[in-house]
Amino acid sequence: MALENDTRAPDFELLDQYGESVRLSSFRGKRTVAVVFVPLAFSGICTNEMCALSENLEMFADAGVELLAISVDSTFSLRAWAEREKFPFRLLADFWPHGQVAKEYGVFLPERGQANRATFLIDVEGIIRASFITAPGEARDIAAYRTALREMQRVPA
């Protein structure tokens, strides 16, 4: 079961597409973070979703939100995907232990070996303030991000 709003987000440390370590808690006290789980690099729906996020990156920048996408793919796959699509945000590899962060957030699909499409907006104190998940095979609409960002702004810190 996915984590609920108003609960502490589990900390994690993963490698990005360049092999650099990214720790969620390093943003605490500094920035809100959007953690966006995607099933697989290079798949059609995931590519379309990440391209839509790229095209709407100012929406996150204007809200002071750091965008982190996470998939079970390796750093090598994520780098090739990011370079091909010119993604301007970090892609994090939840590669080994396989899907561990997705499991901690309650969005790992063991029968598929991948994360579900799930988004968590985490405030500067490390608390999940907004989230949404779609059914497997169903893309997230960019409007859901706008709604979640508005919800974040209404929640007192």
Automatic annotation (TrEMBL):
Q: Which InterPro entries match?
A: AhpC/TSA, Peroxiredoxin_AhpC-typ, Thioredoxin-like_sf, Thioredoxin_domain, Tpx_Peroxidase_subfamily
Keywords on this record?
Antioxidant, Oxidoreductase, Peroxidase, Redox-active center
Record's catalysed reaction(s): [mycoredoxin]-L-dithiol + a hydroperoxide = [mycoredoxin]-L-disulfide + an alcohol + H2O
> Which EC number(s) does UniProt give?
1.11.1.29
One Pfam family, short name please? AhpC-TSA
Domain Thioredoxin per the UniProt entry, residue ranges: 3-154
Q: What class of enzyme is it?
A: oxidoreductase
Q: Give GO terms: molecular function aspect only.
A: peroxidase activity
Q: Which residues does the Swiss-Prot or TrEMBL record annotate as the active site?
A: C46
Looking up PANTHER family in the UniProt record yields: THIOL PEROXIDASE (PTHR43110:SF1)
Report the family membership.
Belongs to the peroxiredoxin family. AhpE subfamily.
Function (record text): Thiol-specific peroxidase that catalyzes the reduction of hydrogen peroxide and organic hydroperoxides to water and alcohols, respectively. Plays a role in cell protection against oxidative stress by detoxifying peroxides. May represent an important antioxidant defense against cytotoxic peroxides, especially peroxynitrite, which can be formed by activated macrophages during infection.
- Complexes and interactors: Homodimer. Forms both dimers and octamers; a tightly-associated dimer and a ring-like octamer.
- Protein name (database record): Alkyl hydroperoxide reductase E
Organism annotation: Labedella phragmitis
